[in-house]
Amino acid sequence: MLKVENVKKAFGAATVLDGVNLTVSPGEVVSILGSSGSGKSTLIRCINGLEKLNGGRIAIDDFDVAKPKELAEARKRSATVFQLFNLYPHMTTLQNIALAPVEVLKRPRAEVEQEARALLASVGLSDKVDAYPAHLSGGQRQRVGICRALAMKPRYLLLDEVTSALDPEMTAEVLAILAKLAREGTTMLFVTHEVEFARQISNRIVFLDKGVLLVDLPTEEFFAASGGLAQPRIAQFLSKMKKD
Amino acid sequence: MQFDLTILGPYLGFLGQGAVLTAVICLLSLAGAVVLGMLVAIARTSQTAWIRRLAFIYVDVFRNIPFIVQLFFFYYGLPEIGIYIDAITTGVIALSIAGGAYASDAIRSGILAIDNGILEAAEVSGLSKRITFTRIVLPIALRTSVRPLGSVLINMILTSSILSTITVNELTGQAKIVASDTFRPFEVYAVLLVVYAALTWLVSIGISHLHKHLNRDLASEAA
Ligand SMILES: Nc1ncnc2c1ncn2[C@@H]1O[C@H](COP(=O)(O)OP(=O)(O)OP(=O)(O)O)[C@@H](O)[C@H]1O
Ligand SMILES: [Mg+2]
Fold first, then answer.
1. From the list A85, A132, A165, which residue is nearest B217 (CB)?
2. In what order do the strands lie in the sheet with A204-209?
3. Where along chain A do its domains lie?
4. Proportion of chain B in helix, strand, coil states, percent, rounded to 5
5. Which of A45, B17, B163, B179 has the least CB density, counted as fewest CB within 10 Å?
6. Number of separate helices (H) and strands (E) present in chain B
7. Coil, helix or strand for A186?
8. pLDDT tens digit string along B44-93?
9. Mean per-residue pLDDT, B159-172
């Protein structure tokens, strides 16, 4: 289980996360919605250990990310896909994918590369094995980013607005892959502005508002008039997203 | 007096030897400077304050002392305290140390220019600091600092002529000998001017190609 318990995070005087609680169980897809600046990215960055907590606790399969020794274990169990891909520019797609499994998990290179090729094939990039990131489209880069994360065989996949930098066509090709992963039972914590897509793939939806987790509801209930929509902030957010 | 290059004919092989020595010294010194520059660039980002300070002092000091003074200190000064090093080795060491100060700047800016997102991706995937540095940071930084490192090399070629003052018979040293043998300093140094200009010109073309070659796949990572 991925457990976020009463997490507080501040940058200077600004409180960005204010007592957030969240649990993600294996097999679940949980989407995080919320307006810009509500703390969604910060929450993901706290979970993958890029930000230090000011209070509370985050544990991935009981490994506490605040403890350096346990963080290494926690990071083996989770993987992050980034908004701006963050591929290693001097490496081919294959090298990008194989680096961490070989160096961190100490797995044999031949085996890792074979899996990497299979992953690339599964996202329609068989012909880009030896291509460098600069020679790929945004959508292709993000598909490589997803493969790089999956190559670590993470128990939890963290995704932070992975389609925000893409045009609609590329967004569709990346979302199709995420939908497939969701169907296959990949556990995902998914920050997005794609409300409709979140509705299709999520088991649960949580809503962050100014660092506070307003609701945590099964998807159906979140969109029900008596559920999430009963909260004015959420109704306002959803109607605004529809207009955009 | 007539300008007559033919009188240099018999000395071409001799001058060529000097040019080869210049090339060897500069390449060795470049290697030394890059290794030193790398270590110093790492030291300058160290968590430990005194290591950072030491690296900073090194860069500052060696950039603010005339090369000839550094050289004389190594060659004439050190024997006074019992350290004897032959002239060519002294030259390579001095050029490496002086070049290292500049190389560290070039490599450091290459390191600082790396997109933070890339480093975060490496960190989150669990890569150790060492692997991140050797497999990601350094290769990117070295690629992007090819041009400034090229300037360091060119400066080194020019500065290496000063080694003639400590009896190293590199290109300028040999030319001095030829000039005094033939009593034709005008022709000798005219040729030397052209040779150095040609040498640095060729090197800078080579560097441009190397830069293009190494960075062909490194175009902007943004969508
Ligand atoms: N490193 C930082 N230093 C200072 N303030 C920060 C830092 N990172 C985030 N913040 C602030 O924290 C708040 C939450 O930021 P965060 O990026 O988590 O929001 P978000 O919900 O992901 O927004 P968006 O939808 O625009 O991505 C913002 O007000 C932001 O300015
Ligand atoms: Mg964000």
1. A132
2. A78-81, A156-160, A188-191, A29-33, A204-209, A212-218
3. 2-243
4. 85, 0, 15
5. B17
6. 10, 0
7. coil
8. 888 899 999 999 999 999 989 999 999 999 999 999 998 899 999 999 99
9. 92
Nearest CA to ligand 1 atom 7: A11
Is residue A162 within 8 Å of residue A189, measured between CB atoms? no
Distance (Å, rounded) from C-alpha A22 to C-alpha B29?
Answer: 58
| CB distance A17 to A211 below 8 Å | yes
Ligand 1 nearest atom to the CA of residue A164, by list position: 27
Residues of B with Cβ-Cβ distance to A49 under 8 angstroms: 123-124
**What tens digit of pLDDT does each residue of B109-156 get?**
999 999 999 999 999 999 999 999 999 999 999 899 999 999 999 999
Distance CA A131, CA A138 (A): 13
Q: Which of B115, B124, B127 to mutate to test the interface with A (most CBs of A within 10 A)?
A: B124
**pLDDT one-digit tens code per residue, A180-213:** 999 999 999 999 998 999 999 999 999 999 999 9
Mutation test of ligand 1: which of A35, A41, A194 has the most ligand atoms closer than 8 Å to its C-beta? A41
pTM, entire model: 0.86
- Which residues, listed in sequence order, are joined to residue A9 by a DSSP beta bridge? A17
Q: Which of residues 153-172 of A touch B (CB under 8 A)?
A: 165-166
- Are residues A86 and B218, on separate chains, in Cβ contact within 8 Å? no
Write the class of the CATH domain A2-243.
alpha beta
Task: Count CB-CB contacts under 10 A for residue A170.
Answer: 19
Residue with tokens 């070039």: B106
Compute the distance between CA of residue A171 and CA of residue A177 in angstroms, rounded to an integer: 10
Q: DSSP state, B74?
A: I
